Amino acid sequence: MKFTRFGGAFSARNAMLAGVAVAAITLPAAAMAQDADASVEAEQEAEVSTSGYDSTIVVTASKRETTLQETPISVSVTSGETLERAQIRDLSDLQTVAPSLRVSQLQSSANTTFIIRGFGNGANNAGIEPSVGVFIDGIYRSRSAAQIGDLANVQRIEVLRGPQSTLFGKNASAGVISVITREPQFEFGGGVSATYGNFNQIAVKADVTGPLTDTIAVSLDGNINKRDGYVDVPNLGAEINNRDRWGLRGQVLIEPSSDLKIRAIGDFSRIDEECCYAGNVVAGPTVPALFAVGGALVPEDLFSDTTFLNILPSNEIDSYGGSVQIDYETGPFSITSISAYRGLSSFGLQDVDFSSADVVNQATDQNIDTLSQELRIASDFDGPFNFLLGGFYFNEKVDQTGQLITGDDARPFFSLLAGNPLVFNGVEAALGLPQNSIFSPGLLTDEAYSLDNEAFSVFGTLDFEVTDRLTLTAGFNYTKDKKDFTANMTAFDELGQINLVDAFIAGAIGSRDPAVIAAFAGANPAVFGQIASLAVNPATNPLLGLAAFQFQPPFLNVPNAVEDGKTSDSDFSYTLRAAYDVSDNINVYATYATGFKASSVNLSRDSRPLAGDYTPGPLLSGILAPSSPIRDAGIATPNLNTGTRFAGPEDAIVYEVGLKAQFDRMGFNLALFDQTLKGFQSNIFTGTGFALANAGKQSTRGFEFDATLNPTDPLVITFALTYLDPIFDSFPNSAVGDLTGQRPSGISEFSIATSATYTHELGASGNVLIARVDFSHESNVNLTNGLPAFGPSAEQLFRMEANLLNGALIFKMDNGFEVGVWGRNLTDDRFITTVFDGVAQSGTVSGYPNQPRTYGVTAGFKF
């Protein structure tokens, strides 16, 4: 077996027997799950070994077998053993062992955002592909709802930092999370484990593997995870933020010869949970009106874990699919083909005013179908040159429907805010609307969106060994991406259908007919000018005070006569790297890389025409609007404003230098980087929806350091530190104002992850006692770049600091049985993870808290 030169020489046999039970260690540049051929038997041997720490681990991050020290980039790896010991069941907990990764859980089980080095987006809008790509066994999972299920039979998880282009067909501009699971074995074996924890948690996992013939092996694994909610809803006699999920996966491995391997995987998982709790952080001036209509909430006590709702939130997610990977070796060439289908169905129902008053609820139903095909060839020459060349095809269809539903308490609630219980009756009479039509119970919006995405890419790398110690690498990725989308919405907000400036002008002229108004303006320009001036003046137009109650104006559907509902992007990205072996123990590297993510589409009710297609008049007046393509086409709707239909591509650039050192019983890695995303796709909540926009430029400078120390045979200590200094270099048109020069919210300056694992042998019995403790820290950071009610001061008002302590004590017997106790967030450290404007409640702020302390006992048996 030949290894690409970057580190001291060693035998393949010794490498395959290396231990993998370490966390937060630098790994290769572009790990791909489908090449995870490292020996499972060697891993199991390393899990119980007390003979010291060995860093010579074989990995396949560069899509070839290389070693940990050989590969020149900054990555974190978490082994399957660490996942089990630390009770990390899904990707949302992974941030406690990978300090450059941050995971944000939002309003439902399907809305999770992954952030690496301060860059990340994608949740809350099905038209946005995440900047951090998630791959499971080499298959791209395009949306967070398909990524967050419980992890089963995992060999390791790799978190790759920075743009990944030259080894991944599906480009990711901020980084990659790659999950590698164990493949079927030709030796019969398996295991089962059961957990009982607080909140009545019951979790069971089981797997079995073995041969059918000398050339065919199979495996089957399944898991179930149930837990009561920890947030009380007293008025409904229920609890939310529960766990109720299960999954099943089967695999077939066919090896008819030493040159050919076929791996087929089929899986299905389901989540059916009541999530997620958003509590009150600031009780604004609208809260007394909620109480006056009989509603209730817990004001400004987020960590009481108590809420009042008029309906329980519902999250139902089905994720399923299948893949076939074929690996064939012929001479010095290896050929790999990966074909996959993924399906995702997600339904959510939520009370979005987060009170027991029946004001407004939201329902969303998504269906996503994805087909992908990857084909690549890699060389293994003895000479100085080696290459990898691949192609990737991606086809996805997204269908989403949704509704906002006005409740029985909406009209009395907004009437109280207006200061008069009968105010809307008078408005209806003045505007010619049916009585009791404004904020009447029923549909407020009926929405339907679709997106068809087709993309292909060609990618590859070329390695040139200049000397035994110096290797130069060049890589490229050419991507072509096309999207066709539709956005259709019917808004039933009677008040929102009327522009208040235009209503005043129509009343003054005595006609609502556009032709009559235009004729009057042409014949009497001076008089019309006076009427227009009065119409936009709050002192002379009393209707303007109603603008705050116009929540859902009519929607201009796409495509239309001006907007075709299409995007088309192409990009050539590349990587240049030099790696040098200072000695057999010390390696250095320098990398310059670019990355790319195609345009994202605003599949939401906040989708609005670009400024170049429409120019609204004063106070969104249609009558006073100047000439524009949409106005001249006669398709403008009342109260039409500008915004985005889509956000343009993200372009990433990173400069990185690193040092890797490995000695007897210790090793450390250091990476310094300067990373920039031009056109970062920002998705900001505005109080009634999400605004999608490109930041002109966002950059982050920093460093990542991690170390592993094995001072004595039984003890392994890990430490990882990330320092980030991000800034919006240019973002003048954000949804909350000009953010140029500000630090992006939610990105801690320092993040730390450290652990200690002590394995004590109990005599000569082969039994061991394993103690593990880990601690993660995120330094104090602002949670928002601004909220409308608070302005820039919101940055200092809403902040968080995280200090999470986890631990486990496991008794592991030589016969395969083990039992242990564990705890996560042992100190019950509580903090706010996200804040946002209250829905239709100006001055109110809501937030999501982190999870409280959990603990339990786990027993298992491996055979």
From TrEMBL:
Domain spans labelled TonB-dependent receptor plug: 68-176
Domain TonB-dependent receptor-like beta-barrel: 314-780
Gene3D superfamilies for this protein: TonB-dependent receptor, beta-barrel domain (2.40.170.20)
Signal peptide stretch: 1-33
UniProt cross-references to InterPro entries, sorted A to Z: Beta-barrel_TonB, Beta-barrel_TonB_sf, Plug_dom, TonB-dep_rcpt-like, TonB_rcpt_CS
Any GO BP: iron ion transport
Locations listed in the record: Cell outer membrane
Motif (TonB C-terminal box): 846-863
Superkingdom of source: Bacteria
Record's bilayer topology term: Multi-pass membrane protein
Keywords: Cell outer membrane, Ion transport, Iron, Iron transport, Membrane, Receptor, Signal, TonB box, Transmembrane, Transmembrane beta strand, Transport
Family: Belongs to the TonB-dependent receptor family.
Name of the protein this chain belongs to: TonB-dependent receptor
Lineage: Bacteria, Pseudomonadati, Pseudomonadota, Alphaproteobacteria, Sphingomonadales
